[in-house]
Design goal:
By secondary structure, the chain is an alpha/beta fold. The protein is built from ten helices and 29 strands. Strands 1, 4, 5, 6, 8, 9, 10, 11 and 12 form a nine-stranded mixed β-sheet that branches. Strands 17, 18, 20, 21, 23, 25, 27, 28 and 29 form a nine-stranded mixed β-sheet that branches. The longest helix is centred in the middle third of the chain and has 12 residues. Involved in the biosynthesis of ADP-glucose, a building block required for the elongation reactions to produce glycogen. Catalyzes the reaction between ATP and alpha-D-glucose 1-phosphate (G1P) to produce pyrophosphate and ADP-Glc. This is Glucose-1-phosphate adenylyltransferase. InterPro entries: ADP-Glc_PPase, ADP_Glu_pyroP_CS, GlgC_bac, GlmU/GlgC-like_hexapep, NTP_transferase_dom, Nucleotide-diphossugar_trans, Trimer_LpxA-like_sf.
Length: 421
Amino acid sequence: MAGPSQRLTSRTMAFVLAGGRGSRLKELTDIRAKPAVYFGGKTRIVDFALSNALNSGIRKMAIATQYKAHSLIRHCQRGWNFFRAERNEYLDILPASQRVDEVHWYQGTADAVFQNIDIVDSYDVNYVVILAGDHIYKMDYEVMLREHVESGADVTVGCLTVPRMEATAFGVMAIDASDRITSFLEKPADPPGTPDDPAVALASMGIYVFRWDFLRDLLRQDAETADSKHDFGGDLIPHIVKNGKAMAHRFSESCVRHDPAAPAYWRDVGTVDAYWRANIDLTDFTPDLDLWDQSWPIWTYSESVPPAKFIHDEAERRGSAISSMVSGGCIISGTEVRESLLHTGVHTNSYASLHRVVALPKVVVGRHAKLRDCVLDRGVLVPEGLVVGEDPEEDAKWFRVTESGVTLITQPMLDRRAAAK
């Protein structure tokens, strides 16, 4: 075990699983994988897992990609290119490339690691942290690593504490009084409570800590199992629960908070509604997710752009933003922006209004447009006079409107609308 002055993260690598499509985000993932989707004004979703690893002290990372990976790979090449091999720092991007044979791409989350065993071996590490690349949270992985080593576990599973009946959409851990996992249930209809509080359940975050020598052997064994789906949550974790020692780590113990009284913030922004809500929540007076905390920054690709600019000061034509986040390169020209989040390089024109709008980079909003409760995909050109958010039936003819009334707008949708008019 590491001494008090040596962090376990110095002997650990982070393996980020970033190959998922994220189909519930609908058209937002038509051209990019879910981890590459923009979030919070200037970052991408994958930046949170990578930043947590970096801030925890991990300097060896790998990112497994598969579905429509170009945007993700380009972002990592531009934003995460500061690792220096001469300082024993590495970030490898591992696209599915049929490295084991000429038939199979990555068959599951565990297979993505199995196909790169030789690369992980080259890192010469003792521990591996397996991370999902598509969640929003801040976490110190060193805390979880120390729990793993001190307990002598074969695997430690990061877990959220959630109200019991809200856990039906997760993989749920049944535990004993020592937090040892006694069973792993995938999306149970009646989730088990915890020994200390029957009203809550422990839901898997898709974060796993292993000794590398143990995981390597397990992956090879799984690869030879004909009926396995080669998945951590579906195959490897249940196997260890039954035949080894699996421990649960509670996220509340390692969550990085800006205030000790703040809630443990974790979001799966896997639906359009959840994605819109998490972005709009950042405009609150004191958001639960603190992006301003310089002690635990979220690293990303920082474009060289000028500051945001607000112009015109006339009645009905005043460039203003209230309770909003406006990124660099934006020009708010005679537009009223309220409770909205604008990513880099958004331009809005006179007499327009935006209310609870999430605009991805390079969006242009035409004059007199009135947008409410919208997500605008990257590069969308909103035509002059477009009104969205007042007539859901009309909006649904051209755009995707969610059950809660959020409208997703992409350029192909606008093109179809223009062709039909």
